[in-house]
Amino acid sequence: MLLEKITLQNFGIYKDENVFNLTSTKEKPIILCGGKNGGGKTTLFDSVMLCLYGANSFEKRISKKEYDEILGRKIHKNGEKQANTSVKIEFLYNHYDRKEKIEKNNYIQKYTVTRSWKKIDSEIIEKFTVEKNGEVLKIDDTEWEKFIQELIPRGIARLFFFDGEKIATIAKQGGEDLEIKNSFESLLGLDIISKLKSDLEINLGKNDKKSGEIGEEENFVEQIRKKIDNLEEKKSIEVIRRNAKSDDIESIEKRIEEYELEISKMGGDYAQKRVELQNKKTVLRAKLDRLEEQIRILCSDALPFSLIPKQLEQLQKTLKADQKVTKDSYEKQIISEQLDELRDGLDSGAFWKKIGLDSKAKSDVIGKIEDIFDKRLTDKKKTSEIVIGFSETETNKIFELIDKVSVLPKQLESNSKEFNTVTEELQKTETALENAPDDDDIRPIIKKLNEQYEEIGSIKSEIRHIDDNIQGFKGEIVTAKITAQKHVEKLHDSQDISSNSVLTKRVTKALDEYSQKLKEKKIQLLENYVLESLKILFHKIDFVDKVSINKNTFEITLYGKDKNVIRRDDLSEGEKQMFATSILWALARTSGRSLPFIIDTPLARLDMDHRDNLVDEFFPVASHQTIILSTDSEITKPYYEKLKPFITRSYSMDYDYEKLCSKISDKYFDFKEEKIAV
Question: Closest Cα to residue 1, out of 28, 41, 29?
């Protein structure tokens, strides 16, 4: 999810139309909004939940009357009586990134949600509209409630959109249980399994017949399921290995930057030459990797079929012959039906009575007509039998594959030539790097630098090998699933309702087992992420040595180096906020959901060390989009300078005491020179 724009119209202390452009980039994910107390930060913060969730945006359930009273209080006091109050949110949502995190334009949808209301004769009249890609959806507030719960469950939204002063309550002993428990299944994708189980149980209730014996097909499907689970586990292990290797490369690249900087500081033509050659090597290596990936994709596609052109040609002829046999068979059936229908008409006395022919002429006419139809039927009987028997859809897919095979060799030849050219250029560049003249002062650093590059090359080779393994597992999983689907279809064709009931029970049981195992793995991953976040955000070094999460109650227990439990109630207020932030950060990382963070008053209760940790380690990497609502005493000038490389745009909200409303400007606070106290 990526927030694009929030528009407030006569909302709270905002008069007329106020637009916040929130688009950000991957390199600069932060939107910084500054405002003094009473300037409108919390009003902006509250508008997001109110617009998306309406009466359900509050922590406690409220009545319709209470909700109308809240909407009435949100109307700008100095506005015109008949003026509309509204909140409009525009955002992009990628429906394809839940697991693989692959962004495709076909799956990115733009939503515009508008909630407006006005007060007429002491009654609140509310209007709610939703647009998807510019088209208004026919959906009311009740239907939207179900839709937004599927898109972004309210419990999850409250974790990603949080008040820095209030989240410390999560850190109280047992305080995190409800928040985490309510959002855990949705965050980790377990809610889909629960819904599937519910559907299966409904189906099972309709089929209440006695279950039969499990046949060979069912046993085979069970074996394939175990095989798929095993392949999924192996694939997950490889993905974890790949992530670890990528982290190793990042660490090495940081060391390389340090060595390169040290060489550059020493001066000399050598350092400049090496920088140019290394940049060229990096570009060539990236190009080579891209070509290698393109060649690998071509080879894993339909390319092998180009080795058997004659067989493909024969297959095409056979399939066309099968199509003709099928067509003739249909025509034969139609002719026979038409002949039978015609005979019935000719046998009718009423038909001949109108024409007035004698019996001999009548017999001649009927004989001629039958001769014509018999000749057409005789021609159709001469057709041969069907050889393969594919469906029309399957046949067309094979024809498309055959057409595709004809162009793949040329693509491979082009990519191979370019690959050879780039390889030669890369070898020349690497030779130039190796043969560059040494200097006594920089030779030890050069040696270390070369070792780091060799290590990166070795790790990248391992990553390519891991990627091949992952692709192999994916291919085996797809093949196994197709095989399983075919056998399941056979079961559906051959078994009665009782057999379906048995299969439903087995699938339900398998889902329970899978859900439990997935839950345990996710909890273990969450424990690691919480511990990692604590080590980053706590200013006490190695204060927490271990994190344990109860898989049933979700209670989080901290352990120190001495293996003794650290009571969370004994933490300082700042440490509690860091602990709560670590939980939210870890939940976001574990779930893999690409949701923005909106953080109100992030640094109010923190000391300098904890503030430094949040500014340096958390804000720049918390999410692909982080919206910070801060006072000038939180994100001060030094902190602003630190965050500036990661800020796409800034706003400030100032309250105008004459016009009794807040105004926004496209910049953060104008910092004055700080006076030095003696």
Answer: 29
Q: Among 572, 564, 573, 566, which residue's Cα sits nearest to residue 530?
A: 566
Taking residues 633-662, what's their average pLDDT?
92
pLDDT tens string 532-581? 988 888 878 788 899 998 877 778 889 988 889 988 778 888 888 888 88
Cα separation of 531 and 540, whole Å? 13
Residues 9 and 83 in one domain: yes
Tens digits of residue pLDDT in 36-59: 888 898 899 899 999 999 888 887
* Contacts of 406 by beta carbon, 8 Å cutoff, 6+ apart: 306
Q: Which amino acid is at 393?
A: T
What is the spatial distance between Cα 606 and Cα 538, in angstroms, rounded to a whole number? 11
pLDDT digits 0-9 by tens, 443-502:
787 788 888 888 888 898 899 899 899 888 888 888 888 887 777 766 665 555 555 666
Residue with tokens 């509209």: 129
Range with lowest mean pLDDT among 27-31, 110-114, 194-198, 435-439 = 435-439
Query: How confident is the model at residue 213, as a pLDDT?
Result: 43
If asked whether residues 657 and 535 sit together in one domain, one would say no
Q: Are 22 and 88 within one domain? A: yes
Domain that holds residue 527: 170-201+516-593
Last residue of a domain, one of 593, 626, 649: 593
Residues 72 and 146 in one domain: yes
Question: What are all long-range contacts of 105-109, with beta carbons under 8 Å and residues at least 24 apart?
Answer: 109/133
Identify which of 548, 542, 613, 544 has the alpha carbon closest to the alpha carbon of residue 574. 613
pLDDT exceeding 90 applies to what percent of the chain?
A: 19
Q: Compute the distance between CA of residue 191 and CA of residue 224 in angstroms, rounded to an integer.
A: 24
Which tens digit of pLDDT belongs to each residue from 104-117?
455 788 999 999 99
Domain boundary among 593, 612, 629: 593
Instruction: Find where tokens 């790949």 sit.
Output: 242
**What was the pLDDT predicted at 100?**
42
Nearest alpha carbon to residue 403 among 324, 270, 312, 501:
312
Instruction: Give the position of tokens 């002993």.
Output: 173
How many other C-beta atoms are found inside a 10 Å radius of the C-beta of residue 262?
Answer: 14
CATH number at residue 608: 3.40.50.300
CB 631 within 8 A of CB 37: yes
> Does residue 146 share a domain with residue 8?
yes
236 or 399: which leads in pLDDT? 236
Q: Where residue 17 falls among pLDDT bands split at 50, 70, 90?
A: very high
Contacts of residue 281, defined as CB under 8 A and 6 or more positions apart, other chains included, come to: 426, 429, 430, 433
DSSP string, 217-282: HHHHHHHHHHHHHHHHHHHHHHHHHHHHHHHHHHHHHHHHHHHHHHHHHH-SHHHHHHHHHHHHHH
Strand partners, 20: 6
Give the residue ranges of DSSP H helices in 551-636.
Answer: 573-591, 608-613
Q: Compute, in degrees rounded to 10, the torsion defined by CA atoms 479, 483, 489, 495.
A: -150
CB 668 within 8 A of CB 640: yes
- Cα–Cα distance, 580 to 583 (Å, whole number): 5
- For residue 524, tell me if it sits in a domain: yes
Whether residue 542 is found in the same domain as residue 643: no
Structurally, the chain folds into a number of domains equal to: 2
